[in-house]
Specification:
The protein has about 425 residues and is α/β, with parallel strands linked by helices. The strands form three sheets. Strands 6-5-4-7-8-9 form a six-stranded parallel sheet, with helices on both faces. Strands 10-11-15-12-13-14 form a six-stranded mixed sheet, with helices on both faces. Helix 6 packs across helix 8 and helix 11 packs across helix 12. The chain starts with a helix and ends with a strand.
């Protein structure tokens, strides 16, 4: 479902007040208890989410600041400021957006309502490192983490401890204002501390945990000295740690998941049934860990699924989540293209098996593709062009391999981000 529709389903107003329905028990605030409404947000789906919220709230928004992708073209009103920001790496726009959002949060008073709109990509698009760490220092650190194969949870553990807003510090800045945080989740398990690096969520990790992440992936010696020093000083108690669940700042903050990877998977299931695919199986949260290892498991699930599918009956296996890639080569690719290429090896010669892996945001890694398509002929077609599949895998160059075959998936930025999907089609 589109981000704008998810906001419209979650947020509603009437003559008496405003309601947040995306909760087990909906929250309702009468207008008489609200001073001003402030709108903040960040992420790849933020533009569409914000336009929906503005349509619902109209003139009731006093001010807003939202970090959106550079490719976005929002219509900015006098009350809401849209700031283009970088992804997957923060840029100057990310810093400007973070400063502006921080200023707006600190301006909110005890009777005011802050409505936050977060989606995947927010961690990079709102970036305000501590005074003793430069944006360049932080970017180098995140780049090293990405190349090391660290999980998104591990990366965000470090991010939260190199930020003046993440790890619940945005809630700290807004307090004592009331905060409604509407979230489009792009992480497995919808962990609030990981989505957008937990801007408005309690942080279960510490400076010590951040140091352990660097040590676990053997990059503690490679990160900039300013980063190492800041984390060590924090672990020694010289910097206050991020707020925890017991902190008073979260007493007036509500976090609501309005859409997630599972939402996308259910949408795919519905469409598949509508198109006449009679057997559909969902594997939510399945895509975690190294992309190549996930490919082996996914191919194994496909083969087992195919073995129990009657001949002539189309069947679809649907998986979602977000894998990682430990980069050892100098090729071009992304986690979905790498998964698809590794799947091609596993289903080589298995007639009737087809795989598509793609990012829901339309961008996979540092390439221009959303993902790639593979089938039982992928390896053989590569061999005909003198392409050695495993050689391309070893140098993390899946994009070049699929480009030569014409099997890349190009969608362009989709305006949303609910992690990745992998589809395994059985046609026998």
């Amino acid at each position: 479902m589109e981000p704008s529709a998810l906001v419209a389903r979650a947020l509603s107003v009437d003559t008496g007040g405003i309601m947040l329905e995306a909760l087990a028990t909906p929250a309702y605030l009468p207008w008489s208890r609200i001073g001003s409404i402030y709108l903040v947000g960040a992420g790849k789906g933020c533009e569409a989410m914000a336009q929906s919220a503005r349509s619902i709230l109209s003139h009731r928004i006093r001010a807003g600041c939202l970090a959106v992708p550079h490719a976005a073209s929002p219509v900015t009103s006098g009350r809401c400021r849209f700031i283009p920001a970088g992804h997957p790496f923060a840029d100057e726009g990310s810093r400007i957006a973070a400063m502006a959002i921080k200023d707006l949060l600190e301006a909110a008073g005890p009777n005011d309502l802050v409505i936050s709109l977060l989606s995947g990509g927010a961690s990079a698009m709102v970036s305000l490192p501590p005074a003793d760490v430069t944006p360049e220092d932080k970017q180098v650190t995140i780049s090293l983490l990405l190349q090391s194969g660290a999980s998104i949870a591990e990366i965000n553990t470090v991010r939260r401890h190199l930020s003046r807003l993440k790890g619940g510090k945005a809630a700290e800045a807004a307090f004592p204002a009331r905060v409604w945080n509407l979230i489009l989740s792009d992480v497995p398990g919808d962990d609030l501390a990981t989505i957008g690096s937990g801007l408005f969520a309690p942080d279960p990790t510490t400076y010590v945990d951040a140091i352990r992440v660097l040590a676990r992936h053997r990059i503690g010696h490679a990160v900039p000295s300013a980063v190492r020093s800041h984390l060590e000083q924090g672990a020694a108690g010289r910097h206050p740690d991020t707020p925890t669940v017991e902190d008073v700042v979260f007493q007036r903050t509500v976090n609501a998941i309005i859409g997630s990877n599972e939402t996308a998977l259910e949408g795919i299931r519905t469409e598949a049934v509508h198109e006449g695919i009679r057997r559909v199986r969902l594997l939510p949260g399945f895509l975690t860990g190294e992309a190549r290892e996930c490919a082996v498991r996914f191919a194994r699930e496909m083969k087992a699924f195919a073995s129990t599918t009657p001949e002539g009956t189309p069947a679809l296996l649907i998986a979602g989540g977000e894998t990682t890639v430990t980069v050892s080569g100098k090729g071009i690719g992304g986690r979905n293209q790498e998964l698809a290429l590794a799947c091609a090896s596993e289903i080589d010669g298995e007639s009737g098996l087809f795989v598509l892996a793609a990012g829901s945001d339309g961008v996979d890694g540092v390439s221009d593709a959303a993902g790639a398509y593979a089938d039982h002929t992928t390896r053989a077609r590569g061999m005909a062009l003198d392409l050695r599949l495993w050689s391309y895998l070893e140098r993390n160059d899946s994009h070049s391999y699929f480009s030569a075959l014409g099997d890349l998936i190009h969608t362009g930025p989709t305006g949303t981000n609910v992690a990745d999907v992998a589809l395994g089609l059985v046609l026998r």
